[in-house]
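The material for today's practical consists of a large collection of protein records. There is nothing in a record beyond a sequence line and a structure line. Backbone structure tokens are a discrete shorthand for how the chain folds in space. Nothing more is needed to start thinking about how sequence determines fold. As an example, a complete record with its sequence and its structure tokens follows.
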Amino acid sequence: MLVNIGGEAVLRSREIVGIFALETVGESPITKEFLDLVRTEGTAVDLSGGNPKSLVLTADKVYLTTVSIGTIRKRANVSGDLEEKE
């Protein structure tokens, strides 16, 4: 299933490794170090215009978006794609 994560960016739900709220993890020194690293490496894609709410992690990119994690989950869960499967 395709999931719009903000702007014109669309990912396959199976590509999404994790979705993180930056208000929760953004203050962590480790998160700041990680974001500095991916920006330096060129693997960060800023869809937020510099004011991100969420971080969407894939195997090869980190997307910063203004779309909340709740909204991204709702978009992906139309068919239950991000739910844990047993």
